[in-house]
Amino acid sequence: MQVPEEKKIALELLETEQAYVSRLHLLDQVFYTELMKEAKTGKTVPEEVVKMIFSNISSIYQFHAEFFLPELQKRMEDWNRNPRIGDVIQKLAPFLKMYGEYVKNFDKAVELITAWSEKSPPFQELIADIQKRKVCANLTLQHHMLEPVQRIPRYELLLKDYVRKLPPQSPDRGDAERALEMIFMVAKHSNAAIAEMERLQNLWVVYQRLGLEDDIVDPSNELIKEGPIQKISTRNNSTSEKYLFLFNNMLLYCVPKVIQVGAEFQVHLRMDVEGMKVRELKDTEFPHTFLVSGKQRTLELQARSGEEMSAWIK
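Structure tokens predicted for FGD2 protein:
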């Protein structure tokens, strides 16, 4: 008797879940617990830092070990009598929102491990010590920490496959489809968290390059384009090197600083995007030029190429 395809996938879900729970156990009960114990003696690293590295891993571990894995095991033992997992996954889905926090914190956690490994040799030694154990399978702490980040996309793939292989009249069809929809929403939620985090990080870097001018630093701004540009001076028919940052709400017209201490640029002019007009200039002497006119003033600018000019105009 051949094992039906959907059962194979359900079994794969169970097996990967067992492996995943032991990985979470390693992160929470071994790394986190032992680093915390050392931190409390005050010799390696502040307790706060250990908490920041591991974020909410304890809640994630407990949820999977004490709830989801046992439920899944019960289902699979009972499969021949009652072939379904959709309902259990529906119970799981809302809790996966806990991952948003962990995923958002991940890059910072990895940076903290690196920074404190350099600052505190005992901290580095303890991590190296745990990494040598058989249970770590020669992988680093950072590698193990990546696992929860990859778990939700894995559920999504397995469940998609499961739904695809279900016979049309399967009693699990309705539940499994609903469960997939829910997991899909959560996956989108955690991807959005990552995208938002990356946007803010990039924005912060731009603000630092601009010398953190108070009235410019606003977390809701979105950088659309930046790059060097030549400013044409009609008075003496010459050009000078400038730099533009275009945000969703403003254009910053900057001068590159010669001595780069702190900021790279000085903001010369800030133009509101609202009411701004842009058009190409057919200037024989200065090719690829365009005119930007806003409430504040009008600029004649020259790009390095036709493509670059079109990209700015767009």
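Residues 56 and 101 are 7 Å apart (CA to CA).
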